[in-house]
């Protein structure tokens, strides 16, 4: 195989991995913002209350479930 072809393939793989990493970071940031705004109504103390913890957990779970559903729908459209 041509060395430039090998470098090109490695570069393409690296770029794809970086895009995936950026998407995950963006998703985590959005999830944090959405769930924080929804679940934390006052000034947080040193610990979350049980209702805040439950809300954050449920919010994150629903967000991830919806993200999976959306990805599957897009994959089915292709």
Number of domains: 1
Q: What fold name stands as the CATH topology? A: Helix Hairpins
How far the N terminus sits from the C terminus, by CA atoms, comes to: 32 Å
Q: According to CATH, what is the class?
A: Mainly Alpha
> How is the main sheet built?
none
Order of helices and strands: HH
Tell me the total number of β-strands: 0
Q: Give the CATH H-level superfamily.
A: Mitochondrial import inner membrane translocase subunit tim13 like domains
Number of distinct helices: 2
Rounded mean pLDDT is: 87
What is the SS-derived class?
mainly alpha
Ranges where pLDDT stays below 50 over 5 or more residues in a row are none
Task: Summarize the structure in words.
The protein is mainly α and 78 residues long. The protein has one domain: Helix Hairpins. Helix 1 crosses helix 2. It is elongated. The protein starts with a helix and ends with a helix. The model has no long low-confidence stretch (mean pLDDT 87). InterPro entries: Tim10-like (IPR004217), Tim10-like_dom_sf (IPR035427). Keywords: Chaperone, Disulfide bond, Membrane, Mitochondrion, Mitochondrion inner membrane, Protein transport, Translocation, Transport. Belongs to the small Tim family.
